[in-house]
Amino acid sequence: MISIRPILSNTIRLIFVALGALTLSGCAGAPAALSPASPNAALVSDLFFVLFAIALVVFVVVESLLFFSVIRFRRKKADEMPAQIHGNPKLEMIWTTIPALVLVVVFWLTWQTLISLAAIPPNAMNVKVTGYQWWWRVEYPDLGIVTANEIYVPAGQDILFTLNSNDVIHSFWVPELGGKMDMIPGHTNRLWLRPTKVGIYQGQCAEFCGTAHAQMRFTMNVAPVDQFNAWVAQQKLPAPAPTTDQTRQGLQLMTTVGCQACHAINGTSARGILGPDLTHIASRKTIAAGMLPLNAENLRAWIRDPAAEKPGTKMPKVPLDDKTLDALTAYLLTLK
């Protein structure tokens, strides 16, 4: 008779290998909270590893005692009932005191981390972020800059984020830099970070907020101080004037087809606040809150039918002919 045990063993092994491969493949390029790029994230990461080590020791000790008891005190057919230890004061004191001490250590470590994260340093640069369904309004109150979905900060600088929501509860989170912090309508929360490594870090809304929650992304661009200052100078400039007939038509259309009701462009009559500020939209890497790379094809498709690109978006579909779409797209791509 053929034994099915080897077949089952190999099948189970293959299942675990396949599940592991699928799980790890989903992690490629994803933000990693355990790869800190700021002291804030390092505090959280260090706390995680310490708590994980404590949990691992507890797991090994408990499981070892369990297996030892199962093997050492297993009952055989001829055995009588083994001696019972119920009501042993010394043992009960030991297995009550040790877990209590472990919890005290965990509480103390967590409390120290929370105190460090709550202490907002003086002279931090102010950045106000407001969550909308489903994008991010970013303001630099001390610099007079308004942008969307892409946050620029200088490396090594303390940043104080003032967080609000315009509609429902959102949550601001950049895994490598620290966080996360809820954004609650009618309530202001504050979070400070000190990014130390230059790079572009992916952020995400971490609180389910509606249909397009998973597509509510942003980037944190940590730049050297000189590059950040250059970006500030560029963002403070008014929108460049159109130089061709097509782009001049695009500017005129901005104020006639309804775009100005939601969007603002400095230096023009567009003063809307319901949608992202478009003054320097062409300097951004993406549109639709990080969902689509910014290029002529994607921008044109987004203007034509936003919901087809991002289901659930609040931006309405406005019937536009091809000539109008081309003019609007050409004009917006000049706004660098």
Describe how the helices and strands are arranged.
Layout (H helix, E strand, L loop, with lengths): L4 H21 L13 H34 L16 H30 L6 E8 L2 E6 L4 E4 L1 E5 L4 E7 L4 E5 L3 E6 L5 E5 L5 E7 L11 E7 L1 H12 L8 H10 L31 E2 L4 E2 L2 H9 L1 H4 L12 H11 L4
Parallel strand pairs: 1-5, 4-10
Antiparallel strand pairs: 1-2, 2-3, 5-8, 6-7, 6-9, 9-10, 11-12
Task: Spell out the key features of this protein.
alpha+beta; Immunoglobulin-like; 3 domains; 5-stranded mixed β-sheet; 8 helices; 39% helix
Question: Can you put this structure into words, describing what you see?
Answer:
With 336 residues, this protein is an alpha+beta fold. It folds into 3 domains: 33-72 and 88-119; 125-224, Sandwich (Immunoglobulin-like), CATH 2.60.40; 245-332, Sandwich (Immunoglobulin-like). The protein has 8 helices and 12 strands. Strands 3-2-1-5-8 form a 5-stranded mixed β-sheet. A 5-stranded mixed β-sheet has the order 4-10-9-6-7. Strand 2 (135-140) and strand 3 (145-148) form a beta hairpin. Helix 5 (245-254) packs across helix 8 (322-332). It is elongated and about 100 Å long.
The DSSP helix count reads: 8
Total strand segments: 12
CATH class of the largest domain: Mainly Beta
Average pLDDT for all residues: 85
Structural class: alpha+beta
- CATH architecture title of the largest domain: Sandwich
Principal-axis shape equals elongated
Strand order of the largest sheet: 3-2-1-5-8
User: SSE order in H/E notation?
Assistant: HHHEEEEEEEEEEHHEEHHH
Largest sheet: 5 strands, mixed
